[in-house]
Amino acid sequence: MKHLAIIPGDGIGKDVTDVGMEMIDVISEMSAFDYDAELFGIGSERYLRTGELITEEEFDDLGKKDAIYFGAIGDPRVRPGVLEQGILLNMRARFDQYINLRPVTSWHPFVPLKKHFDFDICFLRENTEDFYMGAGGVMKNGRNANVNIKRKLYDLSVDIVPSSSSGDEFAFELGLLSKKGVERFAEYAFMTADKRNEKKVTLVDKANVCTSIYGMQREIFSKKAEEYGMGLEYMYVDAMAMAMIVRPDTFGTVAVPNLFGDILTDLGAQLQGGLGMGASGNINPGGVSMFEPIHGSAPDIAGQNKANPIAAVLAAKMMLDHLGYEDMGTLLQNAVRKCLDGGKYTKDLGGGLGTKEMGAEIKNALRGMK
Ligand code: ATP
For residue 12, which atom of ligand 1 is closest to its CA? Predict the structure, then answer.
């Protein structure tokens, strides 16, 4: 019996996770997959009512689950960043979900490059370090700037002292990688490539400019490659952006540090058909992982039966894979594929179906696969 937490969140988050959970229901009817689900009312409505983002009690409850299924967060009535930082980033940090897993594949007909290439890239974005640690500051009017950060792997204090007392205004942001952080990232990357029967990992960086952090990262990845008896390919991030367009079929498992990963995985999302098709996992291999569509709350279409639920259904597929039910995950993906191949899809993809009708089609296809 698997214990799932469901956080529909805001906007279309509810529309699409409802559909995703219908699929999980059908899967549990069809297979040995057995689950219970607890619904969490975390999101903007509650925040606006009570000022609560996520409580300690909720963290405790979520921490006892096998996986979290997440919809979307974001509301035009709330200042940008409050919900994202207070809920989503907070959860990723609390549960130390240090891998952001983003498949970029060409299995469905809406992939723009499909005519030219078949590709199956597994992007692994490091999710906790690099330039996204909030280690920055602004030095104004000759005053010193300092940054103090305390995280599981760090206890860092930096003072920036101006060279003269006036007119030296500047802002800074530090990119930090810890040896432990890179080691666990490298381990996960080679383990993934191994599982996918691949012979190499591609490591993306900018080691010719940011020599300290990405130099250390290369050393650690290279030792790990030796350990696994596998190849390691280095790509500078600028070259990688080009290569993703002209030869996406030459990549398998791709490991990218946080900042570059943010950008490249969005490029990847467009390569594989856009927001309505992209799913992701925030993974802690030894803890609680969270699965979500990559799109936001899309308030313009929320509650109107217009959202494409496929990204959320594919996030449910990733959750099944993660929980050890890969055969069921594959079945769910095949059901989506059957609908798309049969011309059944939502308006964002040029079709005529609403969210619920799309869900009903996938469900039928899934049942037909028994
Ligand atoms: P955020 O800042 O929370 O990531 P956003 O509101 O800027 O999100 P999204 O919510 O991801 O951006 O979506 C941008 C637009 O794309 C939406 O306004 C909507 O029109 C469209 N869109 C996003 N997701 C879907 C979907 N699943 N189905 C159909 N259209 C979508």
Answer: 27
